[in-house]
Design goal:
- By secondary structure, the chain is mainly alpha-helical.
- It has a single domain, classed as MFS general substrate transporter like domains (Growth Hormone, Chain: A, Up-down Bundle), CATH 1.20.1250.20.
- The chain contains 15 helices and no strands.
Length: about 375
């Protein structure tokens, strides 16, 4: 259903290389480059980001492993893919608003880990298990995502660090799940352990009782440029999800190229945040997506294809942070709007598999359209 170069965190269909599900996810941007630095809030545990990143890998690994290790007939498989991706990504908008209101982000993230672990005990009910895993995935991403948005101030490097490990989780969870290489109890134990680590780290700074969320408010949405900018960001994520889900390379199954391509997704997301911090969102967007557009034309060659995917994923932590900054009173909702876009971009590929494997020039065009949309959105949202 998706390829390893997919920037979203949705699960690929049987027979396809796994994608960066995770996360899939969403993105960030900031008003000024590194000179406009906002240090972390003093009550934020300095280890929290690394624990969330580790947990992100475990959650996406667990979701992929539990789903792919079950035998499903073709109709069950399609239904499970649709329901999982819907619950994991489309549901994040309403659930994000709930998390904004509850204001216990670490607790929500830990609960998500445990819910995913519980899905392992529903092996006899594959559809229910996929729904449960999807809901757990959504709660984890929202809890960890809102905390990271609260902590990163006017920089987006941390968001890239948070979102990127999901691609590794999906890739290895899919491969090991198909092989049934691990007993369920080991995967569930890892998920429960990460939940405990999140709770311990949060409790050290009293973040279990109350997070750093500002009071829920849609203040700012009435500004002239906010809605047009949000629409642009939504369309960019749709394009990225569609392109990543349908992208296919003839050399991907040769040797270690599938692993290398997954590394390109992971490190592209990570590097993109720091690049925007250093050079600004507008400049880094045109450079990365412009170069990706050129390299996609040569994607029949492995090195060019890997570099194109690396650059194409760099804006993921940019759009997420930009929308979070424009809607500071509903960061969870903003996060969820962009994960909804991941699901919307995946739907055409699920409904019409023939859309996979488009000519490479189509992906070049999508990269350029994304750059133009982001440029317009940044200008409207006053993001530099």
């Amino acid at each position: 259903m998706t390829s390893v170069c997919s920037p979203g965190h949705h699960l690929p269909a049987a027979g396809c290389q796994p994608s960066a599900i995770g996360n899939q996810s969403p993105e960030t941007s900031y008003q000024k480059p590194a000179t406009d630095f906002c240090p972390p809030k003093p009550d934020y545990n300095k280890y929290m980001l690394w624990i969330y990143s580790l947990a992100h890998f475990c959650v996406d690994f667990g979701c992929a492993y539990f789903i792919y290790s079950r035998f499903l007939n073709p109709w069950q498989w399609v239904l499970c893919l649709v329901l999982y991706n819907f619950c994991a990504f489309a549901m994040q908008a309403p659930l994000g608003l709930l998390c904004d209101k509850i204001n216990k982000n670490a607790l929500m993230a830990a609960a998500g880990c445990v819910i995913v672990a519980l899905s392992a005990f529903l092996s006899k009910y594959a559809v229910l298990a996929c729904i449960t895993a999807g809901i757990g995935n959504a709660f984890f991403h929202l809890g960890g995502g809102i905390d990271t948005l609260n902590d990163c101030g006017k920089r987006c490097g941390k968001l890239g660090v948070f979102v990127s490990p999901g691609a590794f989780g999906i890739f290895f969870g899919t491969k090991l799940g198909r092989a049934k290489a691990l007993p369920f109890y080991r995967v569930t134990a890892a998920l429960v352990l990460t939940a405990v680590l999140i709770l311990i780290a949060a409790s050290r700074k009293d973040l279990l009782k109350r997070s750093n969320n500002v009071p829920v408010s849609f203040a700012g949405i009435e500004k002239p440029g906010v809605i047009p900018a949000a629409v642009c960001f939504f369309l960019v994520v749709c394009l990225r999800s569609f392109a990543g889900s349908g992208m296919s390379f003839p050399w991907k199954s040769s040797g270690q190229w599938a692993v290398i391509l997954t590394c390109a997704v992971v490190f592209g997301k990570t590097a993109g945040g720091f690049l925007a911090d250093r050079f600004g969102a507008v400049r880094s967007t045109w450079v990365t997506l412009g170069a990706a557009a050129l390299l996609f034309l040569l994607a029949q060659y492995p090195i060019a294809g890997v570099l194109a995917v690396f650059l194409f994923n760099m804006t993921m932590p940019v759009t997420l942070g930009a929308l979070g900054r424009m809607l500071p009173g509903v960061k969870g909702f903003a996060f969820g709007i962009l994960t909804l876009a991941l699901f919307v971009g995946l739907v055409p590929i699920m409904a019409f598999p023939a859309l996979s494997g488009l000519p490479y020039w189509c992906y070049s065009l999508m990269a350029l359209i994304s750059a133009a949309l982001l440029h317009f959105g940044f200008r409207k949202g006053d993001i530099r």
